[in-house]
Amino acid sequence: MVDKLKVKKLNENANLPEYSLDCDIAFDVKANESVSLNPTEQKEIHTGIAMEIPEGYIGLVRDRFGIVTRFGAHVIAGTFDHSYREEVTIMMINLGKEELYIEEGMRIAQIVLIPINKLEIEEVKELSKTQRSGKKDLTGLK
After folding, report:
1. Which parts of the chain register pLDDT below 50?
2. Quick one: CATH architecture of 6-115?
């Protein structure tokens, strides 16, 4: 059985997320509004969709390479748990030198769905040694 991502359009102009290529591991989400961002400005951009991520998965929001390289805009990381049912919004920041105009329908971010295993957390006095052990002293960091 294949797990499915259920997506609800919150308005008729919203675009369903989609994989650009069959080999892609992340799907694109599109802006459901037109927004301008001045240099160093950050804004929440609406997608007009809500998702039902299958239990046992999380959705991680990632940059789209084209927006980063052409415009200097970045997504401020986000994580969607399987219990989140509100609108998917994407927080973006313009790190470029010029105003950026996001048009309605523009692909603004990618979301990758990753299976998760919830682990029991155990406090220990020592950790096992690896080749990296002893490189940095992490005691006292809070």
Report:
1. none
2. Distorted Sandwich (2.70)
